[in-house]
Amino acid sequence: VLITGESGAGKTVNTKRVIQYFASIAAVGGASKKDSSKGTLEDQIIQANPALEAFGNAKTLRNDNSSRFGKFIRIHFGTSGKLSSADIETYLLEKSRVTFQLKAERNYHIFYQILSNQKPELLDMLLITNNPYDYSYISQGEVTVASI
Prior knowledge:
- By secondary structure, the chain is an alpha+beta fold.
- The chain has one domain: Kinesin.
- It has four helices and six strands; from the N terminus they run αββαββββαα.
- Helix 1 (11-28) runs antiparallel to helix 2 and helix 2 (41-56) packs across helix 3.
- It is globular.
- Residues 1-148 form the Myosin motor domain.
- Belongs to the TRAFAC class myosin-kinesin ATPase superfamily. Myosin family.
């Protein structure tokens, strides 16, 4: 399955739906082996997406949650049709966004998530404040996004 489209067309959302679909039909093929600390393989594949989005998505002029990289997701099925493994390759990350953003855009979500004070111990460990204006690399454009 190849998912393409212009910015804001819904590629990321549709990719999540395709993964959920394949994971759910593969789960029907037999009981999923569940590691109590990690969940099923299906769960792990679906749960990897927020981490990828945090490090690879940013606000752009056209989309508040725009993927700034390409993703190749390979899902492997066993002979019984059961999901056996998956791997995700990322490519073409927009590296220049780390040091420069337009006024109406934003750096990668991960930087703002770290500063959100959801994990105060992380701020203490990193010896940083939660004020994005203290850091020029993340305060050149917008620092808040209503939809995120």
